[in-house]
Amino acid sequence: MAPVPCAICKTSRALIIRPKNHQKLCKTCFIQVFEAEIHHTITSTSLFSPGDRIAIGASGGKDSTVLASVLKTLNERYNYGLELVLLSIDEGIKGYRDDSLETVKRNAVQYDMPLKIVGYDELYGWTMDQVVETIGKKGNCTYCGVFRRQALDRGAKMLGIKHVVTGHNADDVAETILMNLLRGDLPRLARSTSIVTGDETSDVRRSKPLKYAYEKEIVLYAHHKKLDYFTTECIYSPEAFRGSARSLIKNLERVRPSAILDVVRSGEDMAKLVPEEVTGVSHCKSQKVSLSSADGEDEGAGGCGTNGRSSGGEMADMEKNLQQNEDAVGREVDVTLLMSSDTNGQKHNRIEAKGRKPGRQEVGKKLVRQKLGTCTRCGYMSSQEICKACTLLEGLNKNRPKMEIEIGVEEEESSTLRRRMEGIAVAVG
Amino acid sequence: MDTHETIPLIVEFTGGLEMLFSDQRKHTLQVPAKDDKGNAVTVGWLVHHLCEEVMKDTRKELFVLDGHVRPGILVLINDADWELEGEASYVLQPRDNVLFVSTLHGG
């Protein structure tokens, strides 16, 4: 085939075909466009403020390596005024994490960023190797996931940093949306779509600046920029359900490359239809949502993740209005039908989650209303008296780890798990 | 087969695929210029050849699924996405660099 010229510069040879729009680009223009889009995501969602200290959750893998590289580039190019730090978690998996941490150490030098590594052993007294030795490979992802989420937040706290960014990409988000759809977990589906969790008042916010970036483009960016990243599969059992969702996404992409972003957009639109009572998330238009993901278990609890929306003071006024004045929006009609009759007065829009009245009847399946507090054991953020990490640890320490934890719940575990955990917490308390 | 002419190629595996190919990222190969039927060899032919002759790992499905390169594996021919080059029908040229990158491994 004759070489195709780049659609932007018209001179260089196109090497990349973009999944989202089939645009054919040369290497230089691709790198520029990729970075510009991340910049747009960051600015349109007002993700950062000058002077912010940001911890980049760094695994040494492609996504977090690309995230670190792009953030460094953009921070310098557009004077974000950010102080960037790499934060890595050592799960204690020999032959897997120790190798990838070497990559992170090189990245710290390459990007001239400080690096903090926190280990499961120091935080919890258990390495994943020891956990697997005790409970077997089945279900270990749950432990690893629960521990990791808390470990990132704890690491950030040790650094005095209030905002952690992770390398979750569009494929990851689409996959999570599908998983939650497939298991009928609307609350989590809604939360998983948002780009940021928490706000200035939370201990640690989380965000996903690569939320709209295709995994394919992330890999190509890493390739063309010759970034140093690590690839190996975790040596413990891959998670079957997520794996299926992943294959589904990849198969869809093959037939219709735009499908991935379409799923993300659909997830965002569905999220808006989920009442706040169910998600524990206010559908705010400013991206700064005040509810917390309890225990930090959701990759992205928060409001709408839609790009390009306005944010700012007008929203505060609107919130006030809406608090007096409910069921304002047409899109809520269908949802309202699902609710019990004594839920009038509930607001689906932009309500400070913390301001919710307690004791209102739960909607739909019995879902635990998330209310941020602190774990009575570790003192770390939790929606329950005892956080999930402590609950799991207790089981491990008593050597009775077979707590019927669902397989297939790793990244954002289901409400079922949460309910079971509550049960356990009560039982041991 | 009217000729035993061969062409040199560089084939690379990254993103975790090297695991399937003896943990070796870069493979320098000499492949026949023509296939059994006397047609010039293509990338599609190469994929089959790699699977049959080069790959020692038995998990062929991690590389080829239903006769196609597994979804989620990118193929770059001389750094260009193979979709720009006619995908499997691309006719291999001497000293081509064919890179297979998996996007499926942890980030």
Q: Can you describe what's shown?
A:
With 429 residues, chain A is α/β, with parallel strands linked by helices. Chain A has a single domain (16-308, 315-428), classed as 3-Layer(aba) Sandwich (Rossmann fold). Chain A is 43% helix and 8% strand. Chain A contains 16 helices and ten strands. A six-stranded mixed sheet of chain A has the order 5-4-3-6-8-7, with helices on both faces. Chain A is globular. Mean pLDDT of chain A is 76; it is low at 284-365 and 403-429. Chain B is mainly beta and 107 residues long. Chain B has a single domain (6-102), classed as Beta-grasp domain (Ubiquitin-like (UB roll)). Chain B has one helix and seven strands. In chain B, the strands form two sheets. A five-stranded mixed sheet of chain B has the order 2-1-7-5-6, with no helix packed on it. Chain B is globular. Chain B starts with 5 loop residues before the first strand and ends in a 5-residue tail after the last strand. Chain B: There is a cross-link at residue 107 (Glycyl lysine isopeptide (Gly-Lys) (interchain with K-? in acceptor proteins)). Chain B: The modification 1-thioglycine is found at residue 107. Chain B: Keywords: Cytoplasm, Isopeptide bond, tRNA processing, Ubl conjugation pathway. Chain B: One of its GO terms (cellular component) is cytosol. Chain B: This is Ubiquitin-related modifier 1.
